[in-house]
């Protein structure tokens, strides 16, 4: 599947928000935080035109797509699935995105970014219920156990993540050492990012 391979800071600056694309605490992440309000491009600092309602809705959709690393076709499929859910469409959409395996690895603080979590998965380093899963979009369900393959526990990047004291774990997940568990389905309150899902519903309802 084709993915954006350009500068990650450019995506974050386009949306004016930290999208979690850079490792926290790193030099490039610090530089990004200083330049978030400057739109990329030659005339980025001069762009102050008030956006239309459509523009606001589009930017929110693009922001969420970039947070979770999902392309348009797949994002639209998630939205269509959410519309048939009994729950509020916006909450159902975010719950589907949260349940992606790459996001779960990130939320368990086993990878510094979703991009690195995807790499762990596609390279065959992740086990779900003792089975190798190499599909980042795999949707987890309550009760599933997630961990690395045994040899990955010696990987320096994995060791670094496991050495973090008091890691921030999403409330719908639990972790002990390198072993994570899906405790329940995610709810809207479990998602910390500043997302206005109603704008996305309005965008697709036009």
TrEMBL record:
- Provide the species name: Candidatus Gottesmanbacteria bacterium RIFCSPHIGHO2_02_FULL_39_14
Statement: the UniProt record of this protein carries the keyword S-adenosyl-L-methionine? no
Q: State the family it belongs to.
A: Belongs to the universal ribosomal protein uS4 family.
**Molecular function (GO) terms listed?**
rRNA binding; structural constituent of ribosome
Q: How does this chain assemble?
A: Part of the 30S ribosomal subunit. Contacts protein S5. The interaction surface between S4 and S5 is involved in control of translational fidelity.
UniProt protein name: Small ribosomal subunit protein uS4
Q: Name one GO cellular component term.
A: small ribosomal subunit
SUPFAM superfamilies per UniProt:
Alpha-L RNA-binding motif (SSF55174)
Query: What does the UniProt keyword field contain?
Result: Ribonucleoprotein, Ribosomal protein, RNA-binding, rRNA-binding
Organismal lineage: Bacteria, Candidatus Gottesmaniibacteriota
């Amino acid at each position: 599947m084709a993915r954006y391979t350009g500068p990650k800071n450019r995506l974050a600056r386009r949306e004016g928000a930290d999208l979690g694309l850079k490792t926290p605490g790193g030099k490039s992440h610090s530089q990004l935080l200083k330049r978030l309000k400057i739109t990329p491009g030659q005339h980025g600092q001069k762009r102050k035109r008030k956006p239309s309602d459509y523009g606001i809705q589009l930017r929110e959709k693009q922001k969420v797509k970039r947070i979770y690393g999902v392309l348009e076709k797949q994002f639209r499929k998630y939205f269509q699935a959410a519309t048939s859910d009994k729950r509020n469409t916006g909450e159902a959409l975010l719950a589907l995105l949260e349940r992606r395996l790459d996001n779960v690895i990130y939320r368990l603080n086993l990878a510094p970014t979703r991009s690195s979590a995807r790499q762990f998965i596609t390279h065959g380093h992740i086990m779900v219920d003792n089975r190798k899963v190499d599909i980042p979009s795999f949707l987890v369900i309550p009760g599933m156990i997630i961990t690395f393959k045994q040899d990955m526990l010696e990987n320096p990047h994995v060791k670094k993540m496991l050495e973090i004291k008091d890691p921030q774990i999403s409330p719908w997940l639990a972790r002990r050492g390198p072993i994570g568990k899906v405790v329940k389905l995610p709810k809207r309150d479990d998602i910390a990012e500043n997302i206005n899902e109603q704008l996305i519903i309005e965008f697709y309802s036009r």
